[in-house]
Design a protein that fits this description.
heterodimer; A: alpha+beta; Arc Repressor Mutant, subunit A; Glutaredoxin; four-stranded mixed sheet; about 45% helix; about 10% strand; B: alpha/beta; Rossmann fold; Ubiquitin-like (UB roll); de novo design (two linked rop proteins); 3 domains; four-stranded parallel sheet; 17 helices; 8 strands; globular
Chain lengths: ~150, ~425
């Protein structure tokens, strides 16, 4: 169930948009901000506010990699796997992350702390290899640097 | 050497505030436009400057604007959009401009909006550029505060509303018609053209989509004139270019240089040459969807026509360097997996073809390929090329592959003969 607070934020977005549907991505982001992901129930609740059918909204939600239709951990690690990062050592970084976290790409750690996801080029090619953790960018990665970065996310 | 786009960007990583931007001459071009120029004159100046689109396709900006219906009978609303969805692998130039000097983009967008008499402007930004998002949002507020945006700008009859739209991933959203669908709140899949966006773009109304770097050039063209702008270039295409280099070089980065600077100047002069122990084998000059060039091309000018003559494209002007300790088959496999994942799935050749190409490349890379595969790959490059797919994603995807098959054929054959990757 969307809270009153969420609904208010979503209605503000809709009011600022030229048409309700144009606010659908922001609405999905708001729902995700409060619970980490967007459930089927969330889609069904949001759709009528946006003048969309649940299927139409789900078609948009599933299109975008940064809208989660399944639960994720408290923190999401996005490791860039695209060309410049790949040249500069992506595979070594991935190997280290999967061993340290004991998960493979796409999985969440048993304690719910981290989800590891691939991400297409994040435009940090001059600091490859690079990754994002939640909303923060980390570049010029080394194995030691990855360890000290992850320690900051509880 | 003039660097109009980047000379005022600070070294401390902080953006220019509106006051700082104004002290460097910022918003002077906008004042000049509202004081002295009609929309047609702005369009003419930009045409005369030979500004070509910096997003990859290189379409002349003034010509792009000229298709927008003008005058009393033109449909309303009209839209202008900054394509700030920089997602071409290897490209990080728009980020530099948006983080360092957000007002330059906003001023460029306002002047361009005036030139086509748009009443609404959007900045379509990729999700990952959170720093750009914060700075652009703050800068838009500041611009409203100074009456550069909103109703009756600077006391004229012209009004413009500007909004920042932050996306949520997907390479295809950088394709202008997919971007328009995404802005409307639909799946970001491309549309067929015609009708072109300038006639039927956003909600069926005229819309112009320009790349962020392109728009950042506009205030300078207006402030100093088309003749000056052509003069700072070393080629027929006007202006400067933000060139970038990534890969095994000493100083990866991006630099504003005269349009038409050579690969050697960029790679050796600015990126500091190859890292010790690495030899240059190939250059992808303009982001992932451009054909490889070879070390023989070092003295080639990085402009639209020279790149085309050499069999590639300037694209985004941000080079990816292939060194001798990186497997050419591996790099192409990595690129193909990117394109296969980012295919929007709308048209069959792209949705089915790209994963299949990635599978074949994976087989070769892991020693399970056959010589026949090379012929099939070549044939597929033609079948996924221009004219066979709905948009330019698949034709772009096969550009590095088709040139790798030509230039690094021996390396493909070695994988097949030795039944393994010689680099592993």
């Amino acid at each position: 169930m969307l809270t009153e607070e969420e609904k208010k934020e979503i209605m503000t977005e809709i009011a600022q948009s030229e048409r309700p549907q144009a606010a659908c991505l922001e609405a999905l982001k708001i729902a995700q901000k409060y619970r980490g992901w967007v459930s089927d129930e969330g889609i069904r609740e949001l759709a009528p506010l946006l003048g969309m059918t649940p299927d139409e909204l789900d078609a948009v939600a599933t299109f975008y990699p940064f809208i989660f239709r399944r639960p994720v951990g408290r923190h999401v690690i996005y490791l860039c796997d695209t060309v410049s990062c790949w040249i500069m050592g992506y595979e070594t970084m991935l190997d280290h992350l999967t061993k340290r976290l004991r998960i493979t790409m796409g999985e969440t750690t048993a304690d719910g702390r981290f989800t590891l996801l691939p991400v297409s080029c994040i435009g940090a090619c001059d600091h490859a290899p690079a990754m994002m953790v939640d909303q923060e960018l980390h570049g010029d990665l080394t194995l030691e640097k990855i360890d000290s970065i992850l320690d900051h996310y509880k | 050497m003039e660097r109009p786009l980047t000379q005022h960007i600070k070294n401390n990583g902080q953006p220019l505030t509106i006051d700082e931007y104004q002290r460097t001459g910022g918003y002077q071009a906008l004042q000049k436009v509202f004081r002295d120029m009609n929309p047609g004159q702005v369009q003419e100046e930009v045409k005369a400057a030979n500004l070509r689109g910096r997003g990859g396709a290189g379409f002349p900006t003034g010509a792009k604007w000229s298709f927008v219906p003008m005058g009393e009978t033109a449909p309303r609303s009209k839209y202008i959009i900054s394509n700030s969805d920089e997602m071409e692998p290897g490209a990080f130039k728009d980020r530099l401009l948006m983080e360092g000097n957000p007002h330059q983009l906003i001023e460029g967008l306002i002047i361009s909006a005036y030139a086509v008499q748009a009443d609404r402007a959007y900045i379509f930004l990729r999700w990952e550029y959170l720093q750009s998002a914060r700075r652009l949002a703050a800068a838009i507020e500041e611009a409203y505060g100074k009456k550069y945006l909103g109703k009756k700008i600077l006391g004229t009859e012209y009004s413009l509303e500007m909004r920042l739209h932050t996306s949520a991933g997907r390479y295809i959203c950088g394709e202008e018609t997919a971007l328009l669908n995404a802005l409307e709140g639909k799946r970001g899949i491309p549309r067929s053209k015609p009708p072109f966006p300038q006639l039927s773009g956003l909600w069926g109304r005229p819309a112009v989509v320009n790349n962020a770097e392109t728009l950042c050039n506009i205030p300078h063209i207006i402030a100093k004139g088309a003749q000056w702008y052509r003069g700072i270039s070393r080629s027929a295409d006007g202006g400067t270019k933000i060139y970038g280099v990534s890969g095994r070089v000493n100083r990866p980065g991006a630099w504003e240089l005269p349009m038409g600077s050579t690969i050697r100047e960029i790679l050796e002069g600015h990126a500091g040459g190859m890292k010790n122990g690495y030899r240059l084998r190939g250059i992808i000059p303009g982001g992932a969807s451009t054909d490889f060039l070879l070390p023989d091309n070092m003295d080639m000018k990085m402009d639209y026509d020279s790149c085309q003559t050499a069999g590639s494209r300037l694209g985004t002007g941000t080079m990816i360097i292939l060194d001798d300790r990186t497997c050419p088959v591996g790099i192409v496999l990595n690129l193909m997996r990117f394109f296969a994942r980012e295919s929007c799935g709308w048209c069959t050749p792209c949705r089915e073809g790209l994963p299949w190409l990635a599978e074949m490349l994976h087989a070769i890379e892991t020693g399970k390929g056959s010589e026949e595969d090379l012929e099939i790959l070549s044939a597929q490059c033609r079948l996924l090329g221009p004219g066979h797919t709905f948009c330019a994603l698949a034709p772009g995807a096969v550009e590095p592959l088709q040139s790798a098959l030509k230039y690094f054929r021996d390396d493909f054959v070695r994988h097949i003969k030795e039944r393994k990757c010689p680099w592993r």
